[in-house]
Structures
1.
Amino acid sequence: MQTPKPNEVLQSFAAKHGVNVLNREFAELMDSLDPLRGCRERFAVPKRGTLPGADPVVAEVDKECIYLCGNSLGLKPVKADLYIQQQLDKWAKMGVEMHFEEPLPAAKCDSYLREELGRLVGADPSSVCLMNGLTVNLHLLLLSFYQPTQTRFKILLEGHAFPSDRYAMRSQAELRGFDPNEAVLEIHPREGESTLRTEDILKVIKEQGSSIAVVCLSGVQYYTGQKFDMETITKAAREEGCLVGWDIAHAVGNVRLELDKWGVDFACWCTYKYLNSGPGCIGGAYVNKRHERRDAPHLKGWWSNKESTRFQMRDGCDTAPGVDGFRLCNPPPILVALVKASLEIFDEVGMEKILDKQFLLTGYLELLLKAHFSIGDTDVPSTTVITPEDVTERGSQLSLEFSYPLHQVHKELQKRGVVCDVRLPNAMRITPAPLYNSFQDVHQFITILQDVFSICKTEAA
Ligand SMILES: *Cc1c(COP(=O)(O)O)cnc(C)c1O
């Protein structure tokens, strides 16, 4: 079945309502019909004037900022204050007794949001848990799942992967006595292309599969915004006898995930990007049920024990099955409270509606970028979208490259109350998040970008 393209849907919708798709009126119309329009008020949207980079002369300081950075740090759910305060109050009122008292009893809080997390990643609730941070979880999982032999010792990841993942994988190879330059295999896009082709990934898996121990790419690439075909890649890698892990930091809360169905072996993620749970908040991990009784060793702590024997504090206790056995420490209820404030919004809204809006909202951003800053026209500053055009290969983020200096464009946007980020060497990441961004945010961003370009042009002259 041919999926319609967002620009076609938007154009025909505009035509039906007799408005020009490029005008602000259209953004207002889309917002008025948006089933998620009420969600924005459940988040703290910063005012332009309180942003450190805003210039009071041009920023319209009392207005809400144009926050397009949910790929890096999602906005704070309003309920977060209440849920954290509840934990602080409980601590003040009952001290250590808070460990077993609602809400979110400290000693059990890491088991509280399993249902919600399971729904987000497509997993049985018992296969997911909250613990540590992302890079720690990646290490803990690799320590068990990466069992290199002399013939099968490679880890496959995408080129230009998030640096922390690359460091983690290279150090894992070193820890096992391998040269990371040989053991960590990185696939790069073809000459002249910005993103990877699935066929090229599959070819490497087919050709080198017998020497690959673990395939561990990111579900959505942080730099390009490309979503990989996780199902096809997982299947192909497993057929070659590789174990398959996914870093879903940029995928969770952003794209449809079916970890169980796809047969993924393990996965890990952070909760502060699309999951809006606050900087450095507790991470998540997934281990497929087929590994519940795995022989491969993993690191243990008291929290790896089954709950029933955890407090016996002696040797010989049963390790909890699956992902639970990877836990080491007692969990932080203040952080879990933050995740709860966010996940209850996701759970109420559901990924289906989020993805429906993403299709239109990111599509609208793409449409306006193309209409105003087309490539090839020498008089107009060019903006290239390096994220795939095919909606099945992306989430909310579009990564842009400009013909003007990236940092100058970024600084001028910041002055005007736009929040987005740049990643070296060349990309600006723009992410309208369906839960709190509006079509008018996108329209205003484009208008401001036009101003910024005219300033860059004047300064270049
Ligand atoms: C955000 C992100 C990280 C960050 O790791 P932390 O351990 O949370 O600091 C790592 N890897 C990827 C792919 C990311 O997107």
Note: The first helix runs from residue 6 to 16.
2.
Amino acid sequence: MKGGHAYGLRVWHIFVVLVSLVLMITLLWTWEQNPLAITLHTAQEWYHKPLSGVLVEAPINSTGDSKLTKREEISLNTSKKNETKVQLNYAGAVPVHSVPSYSPEVQYIQGIRSSLGRKVCNYAKGRWVADKRRPLYSGFGCKKWLSPMWSCRMTPRPDFSYEGYRWQPENCDMPEFDRSAFLRKMQDKTIAFVGDSLGRQQFQSLMCMATGGEESPEVEDVGWQYGLVKRRGALRPDGWAYRFPKTNTTILYYWSASLCYLEPLNMNDPLSNVAMHLDRPAAFLQQFINRFHVLILNTGHHWNRGKLTANRWIMYVGGKPNEDKRVAGIVKAKNLTIYSVAKWVDTQLVSHPQLKAFFTTISPRHFVNGDWNSGGSCDNTIPLSAGSEVVQDGSSDLTTEGALRGMKIKMLDITALSQLRDEAHMSRYTIRGTKNDSDCLHWCLPGVPDTWNELLVSQI
Ligand SMILES: *[C@@H]1O[C@H](CO)[C@@H](O)[C@H](O)[C@H]1NC(C)=O
Ligand SMILES: *[C@@H]1O[C@H](CO)[C@@H](O)[C@H](O)[C@H]1NC(C)=O
Ligand SMILES: *[C@@H]1O[C@H](CO)[C@@H](O)[C@H](O)[C@H]1NC(C)=O
Ligand SMILES: *[C@@H]1O[C@H](CO)[C@@H](O)[C@H](O)[C@H]1NC(C)=O
Ligand SMILES: *[C@@H]1O[C@H](CO)[C@@H](O)[C@H](O)[C@H]1NC(C)=O
Ligand SMILES: CC(=O)N[C@H]1CO[C@H](CO)[C@@H](O)[C@@H]1O
């Protein structure tokens, strides 16, 4: 009898322990799936929450469960103290395995995550899916913000199937772009694109997305506030800045194809050679970075001998003409500039806590049977004929990925996903004077750069 009673008691104990375990796992699981369901965050808090990604967006008071409370404390502590490491993960930039030693706290939380099947979010990994709600704006309607040469609806191109695709990241929630929510989130903020013509495409795309591709007479031209005015004899200004008065949001673009500091060697001679300081950031960046809240950098397609010669750019390093043969090659010079500019911006983030910085990876070209100036073309019109998925963890742009490793600047990794879209360039319908060359570098708008902006907006 006595033994039987003890036995019953033990069974009961085991039962209680098992039930508690199941309950706890269920609780943790539900919370993992939908932390919002049991929290009461204001929009403000969500906007200001550290971009942790790996860590859990935990409220201080979610339930009475002491385990949860402990985890919340941990996540709050680590998200403050170990922010750099955590942000690396979130950026989708650096594959997790390459991030050096996590603190025990982070490992603890990750352990729970992975045991529950949730993977680290990497926006660059995923697939293209057909979507009837695309494009996000009309190529006819957005005349005001699109260069005619990039608006394929305004060219003789007869096929538009490339407009109907959306990027679906594998492990990230990517909410549908909503322009009023976007502008509200960007209230009193300035978004700056600085880079080459691919950056300009992304800027025009964001203008169309933010206005819905309409005329928007209320949008104010504030280029003058940034010195962006057309100078005498110039084809166009060096950039544009527009302000949405209702939310006081400014979106601007500055043309800086190399991102580095350019200094005419003779101010009085418009045809003077220009010192291209590989190790210094563009003057515009230095002058205005304190006004920006979101900065998106890009470079890449002007790094060739032809462009350097045509622009009369002479490489300088350390304030002197470069004599180091190891730097003189285009690939090395570009590498030096990307590392230098990224390092400078990353340093600025400390003194500009309001700023979030992104570096867009290289936009792929699709010339076949020649290059941009030698009859190369990209005539395929069938979307995703070479596949629709990106499965790799790292970026295809090793230079940018390497430069940003360990930094707070996020990588906007668009290379591999854009590589799948050879049908979405201007192709042979480009307006290029008498030349018959195809443009397999720039993208039709609306089109692929809209997706880059969706990835950007999801990470702001
Ligand atoms: C946490 O809960 C307590 C008691 O319910 C409440 O007084 C307090 O304001 C809550 N704190 C937060 C941050 O919600
Ligand atoms: C969180 O930080 C506070 C103050 O910095 C500290 O007192 C507390 O012990 C920390 N909690 C954990 C779980 O590390
Ligand atoms: C608009 O936003 C800028 C920051 O981008 C801020 O300096 C300025 O005070 C704001 N103006 C108004 C009228 O709110
Ligand atoms: C680029 O520069 C960095 C930093 O100087 C260097 O570590 C890296 O090896 C360089 N990469 C190439 C391809 O030159
Ligand atoms: C221009 O391209 C079209 C179509 O590829 C071709 O038929 C034509 O011969 C080309 N014209 C010139 C001048 O190269
Ligand atoms: C980079 C950094 O701040 N690492 C710290 C993360 O947190 C652990 C534990 O608090 C510290 O030991 C690390 O130095």
Note: The pocket of 2-acetamido-2-deoxy-beta-D-glucopyranose (ligand 1) is lined by residues 60-61 (CB under 6 Å).
3.
Amino acid sequence: MSHISQSIKELRSKIPSNVKIVAVSKTHSVDHIREAMEAGQMLFGESKVQELTLKQKQIPDAQWHLVGHLQTNKVKYVAPFVSMIQSIDSVRLLEEVDKQASRYKRVIDCLLQIHIAREETKFGLGMGEAIDLLSSGVIQKLQHVRVCGLMGMASFTSDMKSVRAEFRSLAEFFVRLRREYFSGAASFCELSMGMSADYMIAIEEGATIIRPGSTIFEKN
Ligand SMILES: *Cc1c(COP(=O)(O)O)cnc(C)c1O
């Protein structure tokens, strides 16, 4: 058994069965992705549009999430196939996804990316901006996107206490938004947080989707 199948099996045995694994395959080869599929992993995440579209052409039977920053002018390349865009960080981007999805008669699942880390460089909406977006009434008008929840990345630090605090604040914000803006909508149900270094903490704090990459694809 390859180290990739091995690590997927180990990962699955460690986490609750209702938590979805998005195997982040950026920089990893198509052959390695196929090895993961042999272990039953069908859901992958990529952070760059070009890499995503190239890999999707070679492996169309996998399910693909975009987890990295998306420029408005590149939405058209992923709209025909992407199964979720986890990195919505503006109204303008959401409107463009809606427009492109309608050309393919699709409804694209999206997560709002919320900035929870201390670093300035990470993309995402501030909590106030997310509330502005949700109270603007724009989402209710868009027929070809479905806002399914939130995504966030913790600070790049070995201080697991602060990582946990960031995940917890995102989880609390998620519960608040669900109550205040999505009452009755069962589709607002996904909280994507946790990567290789911190997925266990993320699950303890309420993640429904984790995004491990290196722990699956790299030998350790
Ligand atoms: C790269 C990346 C991951 C995976 O990171 P690892 O540390 O390799 O597990 C998860 N989410 C996003 C948004 C990423 O860019």
Note: The pocket of pyridoxal-5'-phosphate is lined by residues 24, 26, 47, 67-68, 153, 195-197, 211-215 (CB under 6 Å).
